[in-house]
Amino acid sequence: MPLLRLDDIQLAYGHHPLLDHASLALDPGERVCLIGRNGEGKSSLLRIVAGITKPDGGTRTLQPGLRIATLDQEVACADTAHVYEVVAGGLAALGEALAEYDELTRALSEGGDDALLARLGAIQQVLDSQDGWRFQQRVQSVITELRLDPQARMGELSGGWRRRVMLGRALVAEPDLLLLDEPTNHLDIDAILWLENHLASFAGGVLFVSHDRAFLKRLATRIVELDRGILSSWPGTYDDYLRRKAAALAAEETRDALFDKRLSEEERWIRQGIKARRTRNEGRVRALEAMRRERRARRDRVGHAQLRLDTADTSGRIVFETDHLTLSYEDRVLVRNLSVTVLRGDRIALVGPNGAGKSTLLRALLDDLTPAGGSVRRGTRIEVAYFDQQREQLDPEATVIDSVGEGRLTISIGGRQEHVAGYLRRFLFPPERLRSPVRMLSGGERNRLLLARLFAKPANLLVLDEPTNDLDADTLELLEETLIEFTGTIMVVSHDRAFIDQVATSTWVFDGHGGVHEYVGGFSDVPPPAPPPSSVTPAKTPAARPAPPPSAAPLRKRSYAQQREIDEIPPRIETLEAERAALLATSTDARFHGQEQARITGLYERLAAIEKELAAHYARWEALESS
User: Fold this and answer.
1) Cα 488 from Cα 384, distance rounded (Å)
2) Which contiguous run of DSSP H or E holds residue 417?
3) pLDDT digits (tens, 9 = 90+) for 48-66
4) Which phi and psi (to 5°) does residue 40 adopt?
5) Which long-range contacts (CB under 8 A, 24 or more apart) does 90-96 make?
6) What is the number of H-type helices and E-type strands within the chain?
7) Which of the residues 372, 401, 419, 614 could staple to 434 if both were Cys, CB 3.0 to 4.6 A apart?
8) How far apart are CA 429 and CA 201, in angstroms?
9) Cis omega (within 30 of 0) on the bond before 175?
10) Within 204-320, where are the H helices?
11) Residue 68: beta bridge partners?
12) What is this structure's pTM?
């Protein structure tokens, strides 16, 4: 029996139905990725599955006793709540008891009274009767695996860490069905990889919305698309879906063109002279009326967004230059002694753990904060367009049109005046959406609106902090193409591995301990696994290991065994380095992450073992040479 079945579901909010007699079944063990354009209704469908939203029609059938856990697209939680309390909240009433038990034990450790002891005893009885101690271990395990601080308050956390907390809340109940809406948004790459591994071994069913191509290629066992209110299932890989969907759209375009041609011919016939109207075939007239109704009911596919940047005059050759820059937050050093130069035309991706200092470094470069040490030199003629990951530049109460036009009906784009409505149409905002307040937009629509707002201003430096969150695949690929054609300088924070590989010519890796290391190329060019930092100074590409100095006259004569060992070490090193190079090449292949998890894990384990063997061989060689 399927875990879930939706039959003939209908849901409408505006001019067209979001769900038009949609049906879906999901079996145990399936990992189904729900894709579609922004605003198509994917989040609404997840809410129907979860039982949060009631459809206008149709039936929802669940397997008896089915446990569902959800991760919503937007992170919403009280700022004063502790992390432990939020994660345990995924267990409903039992979670509240666990959170209270945790609070009481901490209070009693600092001194308490009989009332606290009595309440603690009552909570213990509740946990004893409901197998609460097993779930307590589950809560602690999830918190540990996600590297969370159980006593931190939600208001103190960045967007990425808040996202991790809500992910822990969804996973802690050991559900039969997981509903995940854009689960990788704001997560750093380590957390994304952890989530990939966890879901790959998850025994239940997963229905998730994601536009992270590397993530869905790794996990999805089936693609389900929501397009113009209709759900369609596409078994196979994401690449299979792309090929078959392209063919289906081409066939649809041909079919619609033929239909429109026949309709046009019939319209010409009905408009003929009086004689023709007197002798016309009434059956043909009825057929024409049916064709007219069919054409009115047809929902044409929304076109592609048209992203064009209004480029400013060329900046100076040096955009930024730092000298031993040090950045800190409270008592923690985020960036230590960073000396680096950003030149005009560089395309730099900043990656690393949440809270490692990526956004802080951008703000320091833009003179939004004062460094703890060192200096930043800024180039000349810099015109900045800054994309904020928290979307703080958008007023939630302002309308879509005012967010870009700021009260004006026309704006200057590339030196010429353009109507705001026409400009926004290129970003897929139809006329009926222009007066909608920003708070009514989906996450993807808000991102598109912010891009429209930014791209309307001349710039030669783009600073983009998580620009890909919530964007649908079509808009994401168009953004990539737009950035590739941009002739200015780009600095982008992103955890989207495919996006970084397409856009970046240089990747700065933050290690979370103050070090920043630079590698030429995109994310695939960063060697896995990253070695522990030995210096805080960025270095272009991982440097080759220095060979020991040529052998000089030994201080004392070596034994035959020592000399033989010296002769045998270089061939061993060559063999290991050749194997390492081959494994690194394999790991950067686009098909690598589509394999079984055991093979992926095995490759990374072998790489780590090779690094240890090489280090041991070099150390032994140097010791023998100096003996």
Assistant:
1) 10
2) strand 416-419
3) 999 999 999 999 999 998 9
4) -75, -25
5) 90/168, 90/169, 90/170, 90/171, 90/172, 90/173, 91/135, 91/139, 91/172, 91/173, 92/173, 94/127, 94/130, 94/132, 94/135, 95/135, 95/139, 95/172
6) 19, 20
7) 401
8) 40
9) no
10) 213-219, 238-270, 274-279, 282-297
11) 177
12) 0.68
> Roughly how many angstroms between the first and final C-alpha of the chain, as a whole number?
72
- The encoded tokens of residue 36 equal 């579609």
User: Positive or negative CA dihedral for 25, 23, 247, 426?
Assistant: negative
Instruction: Specify the residue for token string 């270095």.
Output: 539
Residues with Cβ within 8 Å of 343's Cβ and at least 6 positions away in sequence, in order, are 317, 318, 319, 489
Instruction: Please give the Cα distance from 470 to 441 (Å, whole number).
Output: 12
Distance CA 529, CA 524 (A): 11
Cα 516 to the center of its chain, rounded Å: 22
Percent of the chain predicted with pLDDT > 90: 23
Measure Cα distances from 624 to 67, 554, 610 in Å.
63, 10, 21
Three-class SS of residue 364? Answer: helix
Q: Quote the tokens at residue 150.
A: 């159980």
CA distance 131 to 137: 11
DSSP-derived pairing of the beta strands 416-419 and 410-413: antiparallel
pLDDT digits (tens, 9 = 90+) for 1-23: 789 999 999 998 766 788 888 99
Where do the domains of the chain lie, and which CATH numbers do they carry? 1-67+175-255 (3.40.50.300), 76-169 (no CATH), 318-525 (3.40.50.300), 560-625 (1.10.287.380)
CB 373 within 8 A of CB 323: no
Token representation of residue 109: 């450790």
